[in-house]
Design a protein that fits this description.
This protein has five helices and eight strands; from the N terminus they run ββαααβββαβαββ. The chain is an alpha+beta fold. The chain has a domain at about 15-125: Aminopeptidase, CATH 3.40.630. The chain has a five-stranded antiparallel beta sheet, with helices on both faces. Strands 6-8-7 form a three-stranded antiparallel beta sheet, with helices on one face. Bound molecules: coenzyme A (COA). Coenzyme A binds near residues 107, 108, 132, 145 and 174.
Length: about 170
């Protein structure tokens, strides 16, 4: 976020089906699952070994400015990040990771729409960047649904990457 901590943490954000909130100790197993999942890791550098994650994951993982746990019925189904970004496109970058069993229900678009809406309210006029592999079709579809528009494509980590930018004016409903 442009000024980390300035508006953090917000009160939990409720959508039709989800709650965006800070992490809690009860989220630890789901965090490990998220980073150990080969499906989640396909386009983001691969999964991490589960035993390493069990050893190194904090008792309260993910408690930092810009990180929302996405909660469905009291359990973590994914996470959204708003982190500093260093191209001319924007000063903040959106990231999203959801557990495979939560894919295909519109949860990611519902949660990201809420996170972007909160961000725009807390940081009026600020743009948000998004970087994803072009081969990551679900992520490319999500970016388009959220209203991100292409800035450029480039090669990195042995794959074509897509940099997009979002502003409140071109936000779209999922
Ligand atoms: C990227 C990612 C979050 C997308 O998840 P997703 O569930 O496909 O995204 P959405 O929330 O937009 O859901 C869209 C799907 O839900 C379906 N859907 C079902 N019910 C829906 C509803 N009520 N509202 C909206 N969509 C709904 C849509 O038809 C669509 O299905 P389709 O993919 O078959 O077309 C997910 O694939 C993921 O976590 N990947 C691993 C991490 C990753 O690569 N992150 C990107 C890093 S840059």
């Amino acid at each position: 976020m442009p000024e980390p901590g300035a508006a953090w943490p917000p009160a939990p954000i409720r959508t039709g089906r989800l709650v965006l909130r800070e992490s809690e100790p009860r989220d630890r197993a789901a965090f490990i699952e998220l980073f150990a999942s080969p499906d989640v890791g396909t386009y983001i550098g691969g999964p991490k070994p589960r035993d390493e994650l069990e050893r190194t994951t904090a008792e309260l993982p993910g408690r930092r400015p810009g990180l929302f746990v996405v909660d469905l019925g009291g359990a973590l189904i994914g996470m959204i990040t708003l982190d500093p970004h260093d191209t001319d496109a924007a000063k903040t970058e959106l990231g999203y990771l959801f557990l495979p069993e939560a894919w295909g229900h519109g949860y990611a678009s519902e949660a990201c729409t809420a996170a972007l809406g909160w961000f725009a309210g807390a940081n009026p006029g600020e743009k948000v960047a998004l970087c994803t592999q072009t081969a990551n079709a679900p992520s490319m579809r999500l970016a388009a649904k959220l209203g991100f528009t292409e800035v450029k494509r480039f090669e990195a980590y042995g794959a074509e990457q897509w940099l997009g930018v979002w502003s409140q004016q071109n936000a779209r409903q999922p």
